[in-house]
Write a structure and sequence with these properties.
single chain; Outer membrane protein beta-barrel domain-containing protein; signal; mainly beta; 164 residues; two-stranded antiparallel sheet; Porin
């Protein structure tokens, strides 16, 4: 039984290794949500994805890493203007997508976001994503990101990824 399991594992890895892999790089622009909306005005991010499966596969499985900057906003509190600091994260996650009709995809990124700013520890990272492929080289997507630090850092965003 162990030999059969080992042979199946080697066969699956070999199949993934023989297929063309996909690399995507892009950027996102978002509006803060959850606790982040109280102290941030907008969010910018960059992402890099590496999928182990072929670009035209029904199921895409891979990994992602990125950078998020929640831009602090000014608030008037008791007659004093307070400028909140920017909050920065580096999310590292597994990524999975289901592709329908070769154009529309949906899935999620699941991992950990490391806090870069001094006042952040980092936390659980979850990002459900819906995307549309254009000409097999560009993906337009929309998503909701959630980072669970001491506060909940969420954002609703749109982005573009370029496929290589």
């Amino acid at each position: 039984m162990k030999r059969i399991a080992l042979l199946l594992t080697v066969a699956m890895i070999s199949t993934f290794a023989l297929q063309a892999q996909t690399f995507k790089v892009g950027a996102t622009l978002g509006l803060p949500a959850a606790d982040a909306a109280d102290i941030s005005s907008f969010v910018l991010g960059v992402d890099a994805y590496y999928y182990f499966t072929d670009i035209d596969s029904f199921i895409e499985i891979g990994a992602t890493a990125g950078f998020r900057n929640f831009f602090g906003k000014e608030e008037d509190i008791l007659g004093q203007t307070v400028q909140f600091d920017d909050a920065q994260f580096i999310p590292v996650a597994a990524a999975a997508r289901l592709k329908l009709f070769g154009i529309v995809s949906g899935g999620a990124d699941l991992g950990y976001a490391f806090g870069v700013s001094d006042f952040l520890d980092g936390g659980f990272y979850f990002r459900p994503v819906v995307g549309v492929d254009i000409a097999d080289t560009i993906e337009l997507n929309a998503s909701y990101e959630n980072i669970s630090d001491a506060a909940t850092w969420g954002n609703i965003n749109v982005g573009v990824l370029f496929e290589f």
